[in-house]
Give the backbone structure.
Amino acid sequence: MSSTDITINRDVHHAHEEHDHHHDQNFFEKYIFSLDHKVIAKQYLFMGIIWAFIGGFLSILFRLQLGWPEATFTFLEPILGGWVENGKLNPEFYLALVTMHGTIMVFFVLTAGLSGTFSNFLIPLQVGARDMASGFMNMLSFWIFFIASVIMFWSLFLETGPAGGGWTVYPPLSALPEAIQGSGDGMTMWLISMALFIVSQLLGGVNYITTVINLRTRGMSMTKLPLTIWAFVLTAVLGLLAFPVLLSAALLLIFDRSFGTSFFLSDIYIAGQALTNTGGSAILFQHLFWFLGHPEVYIVILPAMGLVSEVIATNARKPIFGYRAMIGSLVGIAVLSFVVWAHHMFVTGMNPFLGSVFMFLTLIIAVPSAVKVFNWIATLWRGNIRFTSAMMFAIGFVSLFISGGLTGIILGNSALDIQLHDTYFVVAHFHLVMGAAAFFGMFCGVYHWFPKMFGRMMDEKLGFVHFWFTFISVYLVFMPMHYIGIAGFPRRYYNWTGFETFNIFTDMNTFISIAAILGFTAQFIFLFNFVYSIFRGRRATENPWHSNTLEWTTPVLPGHGNWPGEIPAVYRWPYDYSKPGAAEDYIPQTVPFSQTQSSNLPNEKDFE
Amino acid sequence: MITIAIGLSILLLLIILFLLFRIGTLTSIFRGSTERAAGTTKVSNRVNGTLLLLFLVLGGVAFAWSFADAWDDMNLPLGSLHGEWTDNLFWTTMIIIGIVFVITQVLLFLYSYKYQHKDDKRAYYYPHNNKLEIVWTMIPAVVMAILVFGGWQTWTKITSAAPEDAVVVEIVGKQFNWMVRYPGADGKLGVAKTTLIDATNEIGVDFSDPNAQDDIINPLQIHVPKGKPVLLKIRSRDVIHSVFMPHFRLKMDAVPGMPTKFWFVPTKTTNEMASETGNPDFKYELACAEICGRGHFAMRFVIVVDEPEEYEAWLASQTPFVEQNPQVLAKFQKEGATELVAEAKEEVE
């Protein structure tokens, strides 16, 4: 027996694969309780898309209210039932809509849908592994997420409504059912669902990190990893460190709500009587929440950054500019994201000295973010850009990230935050930089890796139409929101007509609502393209984008174990695009330097 | 009938769109563009490149126009001293980020347009340039340092301790309105406790406290003198609210169990503001900025900025709460008496 054979026999996954040849998996093993990372990734993707449409639909409902505050909404009665009272939306239901929109989009779509899909799909494929480190934990992670989803979805139909205290669920509002209906059963279900969600995230995160550290193929050193993997690994680390803090906050809140403790409650008089809770601190919850909450926005945006870096390099046919600086800035952002949380709390009465410290730390984070933007632009410079649908969304991502990120410099400044805190300026800022931008990253990823997921291509023309409608309406929705925010309009207002100061901009609000409806409608183009292409799309080739990374060396539809034979070894970094002297304008990672003598750089001669 | 007609026409529209999509797919197969590598077809690249450039130009124009058009509405009239500092800092920062915004967006779209795919061309292999990286790390770092310094100075001044002679106004939030208390002639607010709250004594003032005897509670509007420092003492009795006075560029949360404060100097009286804005009914308003429940959007209160002498006259015209509601005081005296008796008993025992 040759030595190669021994390696193969040692490979657990390979043995497993042989085992599969004997027993075909049944439907449940293959598609429902699957241990295959690719199937789990698709499950996350489908759930993410379903949730995105629900979350988007909720936002359309409250945009109707904001755009036409005087209108009667009797036509919504078939859907909303008792929440429409005499043609008017119930104000508490309005708050519940806002709350659920935020919760769904941040956690269920942009965390689970984005990280869950692409970390699961790409980590084993791009590092050269047969599957995740623990397939069973991976499956558990999805199904716990699924239970969390069911509970959250169920809470939408409660008679007292879902949670309504804002997605940040600040107590005492979220702790006292007397304060708002949604803090009754709706909030209980929110907390249970989120606790399960966190468990699911932790199971997933442990797996992602372990896989990247332990299961890289031969030659795949950390500095040969595609930026996507760097982004996913750092995201998983952030999640692992931050989510337990939210779990603790949620548990303490459960204690306060159900067992009479006073972690967050003190000196409260409500519904005609003084509560006995003393000594608690409502601000403590905010500290705990934002200790997760701020890393959370990076949990949302880092994977998008990774996907976009990869797509831009591939389609500009150029190496990503400053690969090491890109990794460095990812690490910088990840580390800094843990020490900036209190910039959400400048006006909570927190010690002003802390405000100064957090302002300083917050503005530092602008530096690595700026470096990333400059590097993406430098990657486009003198490229030979192929406008695929994925590339359009990647360019859109950079544009939105710039537009939304820059206003962060204003909001991170505590002196300026006094006026702008909790106004529409904040809403515009984070929707651009982490909402729309992360969505663009997700679309970019779906269009780009669809061929590897389903063996077929999505329709490019429909992709372009989808991109342009979405891109334009995102800007039409969120740019005017800045003006409204500068004028001081507070967020989470059912309407503004009661105030003389805010009794302007009614046309602008109608305009924003129309743009939002346009943007939401455009997503059905994507839905059609996605579903249609799964069944009827053009058949893909192994490497349709002429990309360098490992996943494109697998068959068109990679089976269980990903590579039919031995896992390929890696010899070079993933960004050898348009290398002078090379025959093609791309050299996959699996091509050894000995085969590319004409294009090797002086320092690469040693590896020949 | 109409619903069915609308439904049918939507269905028809969808079918037409689907047919168009199929025809498009077939023609692209017929033309052979599916044979080429994705993203290298000439027409679609040119269309997308041009659209990107158009988006930059038209979007830029639309943004500039709408910004200018909304300028008057978005700039709220300013009525406080520190508001001048923050407004200046805000617009200075806006100019800086505006410059970065224009440069980066122009480069992004311009490069995308300019370097679109050409069959005979190859991209320039340019993996890194450390000098460039250092330059564009340092520039934002320096700019940030300047901005942090400006922000820190302003923030420190705004959050410094209020002057001794500041006019004290207590604002207490509840679902869903604001309650206001002035300390009266002695300048001291009486002690308040949640447990003492009832229908009359809405903020739970302990009227056995001598400082509480002259407290003025729940005037119809907040009156403050122009040009004098005003210290807001902020509390909440149920959930978190936030005191937001947009014209004064002022915001501070009202947290149950944790009193907060904010001091400011109003610079224009309500009348001056009315003539300046040309709106005879101009009012300074107080809004709630932290989600607090069903009536969050309706927690409005009016602030009146007076000339100092007008303010004094207004203050003198207000009667203390205990004089308006003697029965409350009577209750406290009775309770106080029973407490005294109880204490005396304990001592005897």
